[in-house]
Design a protein that fits this description.
elongated; 5-stranded mixed sheet; 5 strands; alpha+beta
């Protein structure tokens, strides 16, 4: 009986450690994804500030024609991990520069804060639910000009890479029938 009790305690302890490590890993992956999106939005903001630093008649046209902004927005999608789109929209929602949504219009986009809140919980299964299946979350940075809403920088982030890593981690943790 003592051996059975010790084995049960050992199983509970190992399960708790695995759950805590899993929770920490998921939280870190989501945090890194968010940090890369915020960093990208900040870089785009600085390029906008530089492009609009000179007096101009039409600031929207300046942003549309700025080669540095266009290049940054295109390369963000191509080279930044997890980025589905990067764009600047006017306060009216019309695209100024960046990636047109196109086919991703059909994909529901959620605020990134929603993902952060879901993985911030203590229950690992709640975290799994928010990462299971490819989802797109958006980081938005509103921009004002002369005290009025002017534009919004939007960065779409996909959980596809995180989902693959989570699935791989679960496969590594869960015992397979061939290993027993």
């Amino acid at each position: 009986k003592l051996a059975l009790a010790i084995a049960a305690l050992l199983i509970v302890a190992v399960t708790a450690i695995i759950a805590l490590q899993f929770e920490r890993t998921v939280r870190m992956m989501v945090s890194n994804l968010g940090d890369s999106g915020v960093s990208l939005a900040n870089q785009i903001f600085e390029q906008m500030r530089f492009a609009l630093g000179r007096p101009q008649a039409n600031p929207i046209q300046v942003l549309r024609n700025d080669p540095a902004i266009s290049s940054s927005l295109r390369s963000a999608q191509a080279f930044t991990k997890g980025v589905v789109y990067a764009r600047i929209e006017g306060a009216d929602g019309i695209l100024i520069a960046g990636t047109p949504l196109g086919a991703t219009d059909a994909i529901p986009v959620r605020p990134f804060e929603q993902l952060s809140g879901q993985v911030g919980g203590w229950w690992p299964m709640g975290q799994l639910r928010s990462l299971w299946g490819e989802r797109t979350y958006e980081i938005s940075r509103p921009i004002e000009m002369n005290g009025k809403p002017f534009a919004v920088i939007k960065v779409g982030l996909s959980t596809a890479l995180i989902e693959r890593e989570v699935r791989s981690t679960i496969k590594g943790i869960a015992p397979s029938p061939s290993s027993g």
